Amino acid sequence: GAGVSQTPSNKVTEKGKYVELRCDPISGHTALYWYRQSLGQGPEFLIYFQGTGAADDSGLPNDRFFAVRPEGSVSTLKIQRTERGDSAVYLCASSLMAGQWDEQFFGPGTRLTVL
Amino acid sequence: DAKTTQPPSMDCAEGRAANLPCNHSTISGNEYVYWYRQIHSQGPQYIIHGLKNNETNEMASLIITEDRKSSTLILPHATLRDTAVYYCIVRAGGGTASKLTFGTGTRLQVTL
Question: Rounded distance, CA A66 to CA A54, Å?
């Protein structure tokens, strides 16, 4: 079946602009996660959803970052007033249900470049 | 979550076993050891996980020491397609169990 998909694959924007990154999880997966990966580093947790609600948003760096999942499926990560330091690959993952032993399936990521 | 320590890089000849070590000396009793890998320009991929017993699946084996302070991921017959960054992750139980805390991993280069 289809895996996790993310759009766009690449996004170039200017400092100060607003961007939206989309994630389509695997059908039937109730848990959805966002991570951010800077060059040479491992992925860094941002937020995860169980259904429609954000169960843990402790990784969001500041209030310019916001994510939604209104119908418990597709999620959008929104970044306001982008800064050059926001440049990274944004990864989305989904799992059947949140738990200590769930396998997270990752998408290919969206590469965001802020000029 | 407990911190993990991995060597930054390793080489392995194709067809040989790749043994990737991980130290997690501060692991607590309810924490699992997970391994993921990330092939260039792709998202991470789950490999295996365990609590205290050794585990094996179609991809790899996981050996956890009796005191659980370290583990080794074994790829029995490495191929060029196994070239990737391998992440050892210790994952806490409880309400925040679901996030994965990645370190910088081990970059495994499989060569001919």
Answer: 10
